[in-house]
Design goal:
The protein is mainly α. The protein is 53% helix and 8% strand. The chain has a two-stranded antiparallel ribbon.
């Protein structure tokens, strides 16, 4: 849970930095930090920081992560989320039911 909160903090900071004057205003779509790349970078750095005794090295690693998250952005295109399908009825899977004891 702590790691997920840490990732979300870095991603939200990167989103605000990207929303500020990091990119020209004439872009077609709004941009946000790439979540997959950020999480993939934060997790190993977090583990390295936990086992590092040097405060200077920890600060340096966190600054690199912040720069990494701000550098990679992706456009947010409206209407790209597909509609969810309703789950199928359980009557199609008769073997999945528990056997009766009668």
């Amino acid at each position: 849970m702590t790691l997920a909160n840490l990732c979300q903090c870095f991603i939200s900071d990167a989103d605000t930095a990207i929303a500020d004057n990091k990119y020209p205003k004439n872009l077609k779509y709004e941009h946000q930090a790439n979540r997959r790349q950020c999480v993939g970078k934060i997790v190993p750095v977090f583990l390295e920081c936990v086992f590092t005794d040097s405060k200077r090295k920890r600060n340096q690693l966190w600054k690199k992560v912040e720069q990494f998250c701000k550098r990679f952005s992706q456009p947010v295109r409206p209407g790209r989320n597909p509609a969810r399908k309703n789950p199928r009825d359980k009557k199609f899977y008769p073997n999945a039911r528990k056997p009766s004891l009668s």
